[in-house]
Amino acid sequence: MYKSYNKIINDGKYPVYFVTVSEPLGIVPQSLWSDFPQYDNPGLFKDNVQRTGGMFTSDWKKLFGTGQQSTPFDMNAYNQCIDILSNVIKGFIQNNNGKQFLSFVEDKIFSPKSKNVGTHGDMLTRTGSIPDKNRYLKRDAPRKEPFDYVDSVLKTRTSD
Fold first, then answer.
1. What is the pTM of this model?
2. pLDDT digits (tens, 9 = 90+) for 99-142
3. Residue 69: is its pLDDT beyond 90?
């Protein structure tokens, strides 16, 4: 993802500034991308495979001789964390009034009623600050580098 975003930044065709939506921090501006460590906060993931570091049943069997293990998930704690982080994002948006915000975080077609909304999409929905028309998929195909897709969206949006 960052390879594509950096390519767009370095191309200089569009007046863009990227920020990363982040579980532990809320927002990480592009100017700080090199200053924050690699992380994962699996406690916020609803999906058991994500909470266990991406290990599938076959991984558990190979490493531990048993089927996939389940880890606890606390929906109330999840909601509290997502609410706090969405308020951080909302504050960032309010402090940057007059800027146009586009989102490229959804893995599937965005629907606020979807049960498959990820943590980033959930945070953005709860801010109430980014209109649906400004929310896009991460990329146009699974595991595909998003440069061409994001570039085409930006081209369309800047020609309006």
1. 0.79
2. 999 999 887 665 555 566 788 889 999 999 999 899 999 888 88
3. no
Domain ranges for the chain: 2-47+74-159
Query: Are residues 78 and 45 in contact, defined by beta-carbon separation less than 8 angstroms?
Result: no
For residue 111, the model assigns a pLDDT of 55
Q: Concatenate the DSSP letters of all residues of the chain into one string.
A: -HHHHHHHHHH--S----EEEETTTEEEEGGGGGGS-----GGG-SSHHHHTTS--HHHHHHHHSS--------HHHHHHHHHHHHHHHHHHHHHTTT----EEEESS---TT-TT--HHHHHHHHHT-S-GGGEEES-SSTT--SHHHHHHHHHHHHH-
* Cβ atoms of 123 and 86 closer than 8 Å: yes
Burial of 136 (0-12, 13-18, 19+ CB in 10 A): buried
Interval 5-48: pLDDT, tens: 999 999 999 999 999 888 878 888 898 888 877 666 666 777 77
Dist. CA 44–CA 77, nearest whole Å: 8
Phi/psi class of residue 37: alpha, beta or left (left: φ > 0; alpha: ψ in -120 to 50)? beta
